[in-house]
C-alpha cells in the first residue's frame, strides 16, 4: 500500500525507461504513476550506409550521439558480427556525447568518449565544438525529430555534417494514457516530469481527445511541472503551462532532485 505522505510523480518516459525511472524515483521518496506518453521505434534512412562507411573508412572526424537511444538503434542496424569492428572504428574518431547518460551508454559498449558539452543540448554541442570543426567531417545518428539547431549550427561553424535518422517517436494510443489524465484531474498527482517536447504535445493531445484541455491546464498550473531543458520548457509555455523546474543538468535524475527540493514530503 502506498504511503499517503509520499507525493505522486507522473513519469511519462518511453516504456524502455519505465523500470529504471520508477526505481530511481521511488528511491528518492516519490510514489509514481508511470505511463508512457511517447514511444520509440527503429528506422533507417538513406544516410545510414554513408554514415557507417564514413566511420569504418576513417572518413569521419567527429561522431556525435545525442542520446543512448541513438546508440542503441545504430547498433541494432549493424550485423552482430560487424559490431566490434564498428566500435573499433568509432574509437579511431572523436566521439562526442550530448550528456552523462549518453556518455555512460557509450562507455558501456566499449566506446571512448572524447568529450561532452557543459550544457547538455543541441545548442551546447554547437558551442562546444564550433571552434574545432571547420573543414571537418561531423557525423551524427539521432531521432527523426532531432532539432535543426545542431545540424545548422555545425554547418555555420564550417563542418561537413552527415546526419542519419536511426529511430522515430510516436504517441501511444491506449486507455492508460487517458487514465493518467483522469488521475491528474482527480488531484492524485503532485508533480509532472516532462522530458521532451513531443511528450508535451502528446499529453495535450490525449487531454483533447477526452475533452479536458482547459481542466488539465488548470491542474498543471496548480502542480509542480518539471521540464528537462529549455526546449521542453518553451513547448510547455506555448500551452500556457507555468514551468516550475528546469534543472541545470538536463538529466532525469536531476529533474527528480529539483522536484524533491520543492516537495519536503519526499523522505
Topology:
Layout: E1 8-11, H1 18-27, E2 31-34, E3 39-42, H2 48-56, E4 62-65, H3 68-76, H4 80-90, E5 94-97, H5 100-108, H6 122-129, E6 137-143, H7 148-156, E7 160-170, H8 175-185, E8 191-194, H9 197-209, H10 213-220, E9 224-227, H11 230-238, H12 252-262
Helix pairs in contact: 6-7, 9-11
Gist?
The protein is α/β, with parallel strands linked by helices and 267 residues long.
Describe this structure in words.
The chain is α/β, with parallel strands linked by helices. Helix content is 44%, strand content 17%. The chain is built from 12 helices and 9 strands. The strands form 2 sheets. Strands 3-7-6-4-5 form a 5-stranded mixed β-sheet. A 4-stranded parallel β-sheet has the order 2-1-8-9. Strand 1, helix 1 and strand 2 form a beta-alpha-beta unit. Helix 6 runs parallel beside helix 7 and helix 9 packs parallel to helix 11. The longest helix has 13 residues. The radius of gyration is 20 Å and the shape is elongated. The two termini are 16 Å apart. 39% of the residues are buried.
State the major sheet.
Answer: 5 strands, mixed
How much of the sequence is in beta strands? Answer: 15-25%
Binned, the helix content reads: 40-55%
Strand order of the main beta sheet, please? 3-7-6-4-5
If you compute it from the alpha carbons, what radius of gyration comes out, rounded to the nearest whole angstrom? 20 Å
Helix-strand topology string: EHEEHEHHEHHEHEHEHHEHH
The number of helical elements comes to 12
Helical/strand content category: alpha/beta
Shape: elongated
| β-strand number | 9
Mean pLDDT, to the nearest integer, reads 93
Q: How far do the termini sit from each other?
A: 16 Å
Q: Name the poorly predicted regions.
A: none
